[in-house]
Amino acid sequence: MTNNLNFKEISVYKGPERSPGFLLWHISTTWRSTIEAVLKNYCLTHPQFVVLATLGWLTRNGDPVTQVAIGRMAGLDPNTTSQIIKGLEQKELVKREQSSDGRAKNTFLTRNGSQILSVALPAVEKGDAQFFENLSPKEMESMINIFHKLIPHEQ
Fold first, then answer.
1. Is 12 part of any domain?
2. What does pTM read for this prediction?
3. CA gap 29, 42 in Å, rounded
4. Which residues form the domain of 52?
5. Which of 37, 88, 96, 98 makes a 20 to 30 Å CA pair with 48?
6. How far apart are CA 64 and CA 80, in angstroms?
């Protein structure tokens, strides 16, 4: 049975293969499946990994980091960030302590969290490299520059 839709009238694109939104959705779901398969080896969900890696990056100089800062850098809302951090706390990968001013909690990687991140991050980067292997270095740099244009600044 065919439908009565005239796509020339309702879409500016000739088909899904020309729609940037559809292509981004398709690529992102395929890439995410690749990364989730890697992360299963470390008993981490993709959002947990993103928060863990973000925390590792933000605390690399030993500075205290709040959950708000983690959420901003990861592009997550405060409630989602809080839930993910609670899950990572239950896995003993992070710990939270009251900050010196008492208004916020600082979040730190535990020894276990550092160990997991030290093996999970290279594995994820290897998955990324395999996923994007058909791109030349110049194409990869162009793609990264385009991504930066699309990410809202000052999250």
1. no
2. 0.87
3. 20
4. 45-150
5. 98
6. 20
